[in-house]
Design goal:
single chain, 139 residues, mainly alpha, 4 helices, 79% helix
């Protein structure tokens, strides 16, 4: 039965070992068309493996670029917030005489930030209206 077939296959592989992945004797004993189709198939597999390696490399580069962009965006956002805040609170800065700095009043700071936000919202509305007119004219 099955054990006998396994013994015969094992004995056959011991008496005539295949070197190079087990297809050498098949290629030598196969007709020319089968050998060339198997060689073509192997070439196709190698090409696909190379494509996979290239795509994995590109994916690693894209992930690294994405991480760099996210880091840069976070740093720029933080810097922009700082600049906008300093600009909004510029009028509250008192001239400093000596080493002691006088803190800004919380209400004055809040009012200055509120005014800056309202001004920015008005600019956004004007830009939106202007882009609406441009989009309407283009249609």
């Amino acid at each position: 039965g099955l054990r006998e077939k396994l013994r015969r296959l094992r004995a056959r592989s011991i008496t005539s070992p295949n070197v190079g992945g087990g297809t050498g004797s098949r290629l030598r004993n196969a007709p020319a068309g089968a050998a060339s189709s198997e060689a073509l198939f192997r070439r196709h597999i190698e090409d696909m493996q190379q494509s996979v390696e290239e795509l994995q490399y590109q994916l690693r580069r894209a992930r690294a670029s994405e991480a760099d962009i996210r880091s840069s965006l976070a740093a720029r956002s933080s810097a922009l917030r700082t600049v906008l805040r300093l600009g909004a609170l510029a009028e509250l800065r008192l001239p400093q005489c000596g080493p002691i700095r006088m803190p800004n009043a919380a209400d004055a700071e809040r009012d200055a930030l509120r005014a800056a936000v309202q001004e920015q919202l008005q600019w956004n509305l004007q830009l939106r209206r202007a882009s609406g007119h441009i989009a309407g004219a283009a249609e």
